[in-house]
Amino acid sequence: MKLNLWYKKISIFVLAGIAYGAGIFLSNQAWGVNNAVDVERPLIALGQLLAITGITILFSNKDMFHRWLIFTAIYIPIAVALDFVLFPTPIGLGFMITAILPRTTGIPLFGGLYTLLTICFVSVSWLVLWIRRRRHKRNK
Fold first, then answer.
1. pLDDT tens digits for range 96-108
2. DSSP reduced 3-state for 102
3. Quick one: DSSP state of residue 95?
4. Residue 60 is part of which domain span?
5. How many other CB atoms are there within 10 angstroms of residue 126's CB atom?
6. C-alpha closest to that of 87 among 23, 122, 38
7. Which long-range contacts (CB under 8 A, 24 or more apart) does 96-103 make?
8. Rounded to whole angstroms, how far apart are CA atoms 79 and 118?
9. Distance of CA 99 to CAs 41, 42, 64, Å?
10. Domain count, the chain
11. How close are the terminal C-alpha atoms of the chain, in Å?
12. Of the candidates 37, 44, 107, which has an alpha carbon nearest to the alpha carbon of residue 76?
C-alpha cells in the first residue's frame, strides 16, 4: 500500500499524540521512587514540539517534505549522540555539563532547535516558490 503524502504528514501528529499521552500517563503514576523516572516532562515537551512541527510540515510541498525527511534522518542521530555526550545518564555517560543540567534537558533543547529549523526550511521553501512564481509571471 502506497501512502499518500497527507497520511505521511498526519503521522507526525500521531507521534506527537503518543509522546504527549505517554508523558501525561507517566506524570499521573505513583512510582514511589522520588521522581527517579523523570521522563514525563520531556515527553510532554516532545509531544508539543512534534505538534508544532506537524503544523509546519502541513504547509510544505512534496519536495520540501522529502528534504525534511532527509534532514530528520541526519539530525535525530546527531541530536541523540550530543544528548548522551552533554547530559548525564544513569550509567555514567555524559561528561561535559553533568553537574549543571539534568539529563532531561536535551529533549526541549534539541527538540526546540529541530522545530525552529523545520519552520525555517518550510518558510524558505515558500519564499523560493513565491519568487519563482513571480519571475514566471514577469516572463510571460
1. 544 556 667 778 8
2. coil
3. -
4. 5-139
5. 14
6. 38
7. 102/38, 103/38
8. 15
9. 20, 19, 40
10. 1
11. 41
12. 107
